[in-house]
Amino acid sequence: MGSIETSRPAACPACAVAPAAEELAEGRAPDKAQLFLSLPTIHCAGCIAAVERALNAMPGVREARVNLTLKRVAVEAEPDTTADDLIAVLDRVGYEAHELDPGIIAATATDKAGRDILMRIAVSGFAMMNVMLLSVAVWSGASDATRDMFHWISAAIALPAIAFSAQPFFRNALSVLKHARLNMDVPISLAILLAAGMSLYETAQHGPHAYFDAALSLTFFLLAGRYLDHRTRAVARSAAEELAALEVPRALRRAADGQEETVAISQIAVGDVVLVKPGARVPVDGVVAEGQSEIDRSLLTGETLPAFAGPGARLSAGEVNLTGPLSVTVTAAGEDSSLHRMADLVAVAESSKNRYTSLADRAARIYAPGVHLLALAAFLGWLAGTGGDVRLALNIAVAVLIITCPCALGLAVPAVTTAASGRLFKKGMLIKDGTALERLAEIDTVVFDKTGTLTLGTPEPTNLGNHPRRELEIALALAGPSAHPLAKALAEAARKAGIHPAPLTDVHEVPGHGVEGRLGGQIVRFGRAAWLGAEAGPETAAWLRVGQGAPIEFTFADRLRPGAQEAVAALRARGLEVRLLSGDAEAPVADLAGRLGISEWIAGALPEEKAEAVAALSRGGRRVLMVGDGLNDTAALAAAHVSISPATALDAARVASDIVLLGQDLAPIAEAATTAKKATRRIHENFAIAALYNMIAVPIALAGFATPLAAALAMSASSITVSLNALRLR
Amino acid sequence: MEMLAYLIPISLSLGALGLAAFFWALRSNQFDDPEGDSRRILNDEWDDHPKP
């Protein structure tokens, strides 16, 4: 409901004439709801049509439009439509959907920076083609007055175009020079400026060579590289922000007059009473004031077994309430909650990761000073060799700068990264960090979390076959109406096995304990071990007791996430060591490790121990990929060389990880490792191509044989080769 | 050679026209979903009459 548009101007005396303000004054409700849903599984024309048809057929929906590039749908609907209704409809037609925060999306919808670069690309492309047209005439023999006129027209087109298009390079170069450092933008700016300046001077002096086309094509190709780079990062950033918004932060507060109101988490203060309905996530840290229930702590601790919560029990933000409604007195909200305190642990681990330098940066560090020294040497050498001919020496130095200008280098990395992350996005993986692919290519160890990562966190009964039909019928009758995950799992499995519920009367839930009913004159109960007087075993279990008979155990195991088996097998087949690190009890961890064939596992690990285990592996010289979803994994995710979390993970875990899995399937992880290796190989190849081209072209330029035509040919050829090599990745 | 006096301005203004068209397309959000737009032509929902 909070997604209803509220971006209206505030009522004020000065704007009383504005119709919007009048509406506000009359207290009229907003006339439409703008909702956004993330659709991780859509991929084709059929999906677009199916989603739009399903949504448009819903009463209350005015218009639904899918954006396949961003895998989301924008829906304009009547104000009382909620995202949950839409998600239910999409679920029925077979598409997974998550709600996104419309506020954040509105802010990132128009990609201003991307458009800015596109405009500059268009202008430099337009100018480049026109100048090239005139240059062809000069190269094919125009001379004297005609050549001069063509050069002047070229100057008239090129100079304003460069002044507009090359601004991003100039700005960056200026800012690093201020800090007395060098990056790729310095030789780029220098080459563009010197080429344009020298050409203008040559034109005025009726000289034969002008490099306007070279200056423009440099700008054009490098802007193209810059745009690819920007798009990869912008898509990742906006998607990460949206994911952060997956859990729209709201809470149900009980006001002083006893009324319930939905408010933003930021408005909750310590001492407020918050209602947490069954099935909802606890939004704050607090103490239970009223009610009894069971609490699912799996996201925070990795425990699969729900814990009992009655008055006085402490709850942490992020836990899920299962069976009964609870009123919680807030002890910490927002920034102070345990969720946020975990962020400190993450910040420490993150700072060590920031030291990673990308391949592009390492190349630029060697390349930029080298280019300047070479051009300077050419200038000084020719100055000495010709006995002081400044014009010739400067011409050759400019030719060297243009030829060595990192056109191919500027495209070498972004072209590959764009191709690779596009490929992974299609498979349902989102690269959040620019260097994540390079780091992923280096891994030799994979550490998995258990609950919620290798497993779905939903249980599955394991010993149904051991029970007589009669007991199953009673259990189904009791479990059927309950929302508890164990009960739901049992009911589902029993129905699938063709069991019909026994005719019970007076079935009711006893929050925090289980379900009770009557069978004839006997009381039957299904629930926690302690409630039924049974001895709790090591396994996850629920118990059934008929009258005064002995309690009967139903054991459960966590259901494997689809693709988990394949992912682990494929990673091992690639020679990577796979480990399991869980906060859960030993028995379920050992069982899962056995099922997946993982020999190295640790159970009962606290969050700090997880982070320490990963850090110890790193100290031992290993490059660790951490895959986890819980709050207890967050620090370990940040400490690892590279990390992946599923979209169902808590905000904190997704923020700490470099790659997010959008769908349920784990199988793409192994594929991502392969793609990353391939991508890094392509980047190295591209560097080699650029170097090879420089080795051929630089001696020619140094010898003074480089003409504007040769520069244009060599530059285009190398840029196109590098881009095509990157495209081979698909 | 006097033809150049006409031809160069004509070629430049035609190019500028293309540039202006691109700017218009960019500003009217036509590059927001390149992937989806390329698939939408396969959709047969509005084949008989345009979307109302």
Automatic annotation (TrEMBL), chain A:
Classification via InterPro entries: ATPase_P-typ_cyto_dom_N (IPR023299), ATPase_P-typ_P_site (IPR018303), ATPase_P-typ_TM_dom_sf (IPR023298), ATPase_P-typ_transduc_dom_A_sf (IPR008250), ATPase_P-type_domA (IPR059000), HAD-like_sf (IPR036412), HAD_sf (IPR023214), Heavy-metal-associated_CS (IPR017969)
Chief place where the protein resides: membrane
Membrane disposition: Multi-pass membrane protein
Location of the protein in the cell: Cell membrane
TM helices/strands, residue ranges: 117-138, 150-170, 182-204, 210-228, 366-384, 396-420, 687-703
All copies of domain HMA, residue ranges: 33-98
Keywords: ATP-binding, Cell membrane, Ion transport, Magnesium, Membrane, Metal-binding, Nucleotide-binding, Phosphoprotein, Translocase, Transmembrane, Transmembrane helix, Transport
Stated family: Belongs to the cation transport ATPase (P-type) (TC 3.A.3) family. Type IB subfamily.
Name under which the protein is recorded: Cu2+-exporting ATPase
UniProtKB/TrEMBL annotation, chain B:
Region (Disordered): 31-52
Positions with biased composition (Basic and acidic residues): 36-52
InterPro entries: Cyt_oxidase_maturation_cbb3 (IPR004714)
Stretches that traverse the bilayer: 6-26
Keywords annotated in UniProt: Membrane, Transmembrane, Transmembrane helix
Claim: Translocase is one of the keywords in the record: no
NCBIfam families in alphabetical order: ccoS
Protein name: Cbb3-type cytochrome oxidase maturation protein
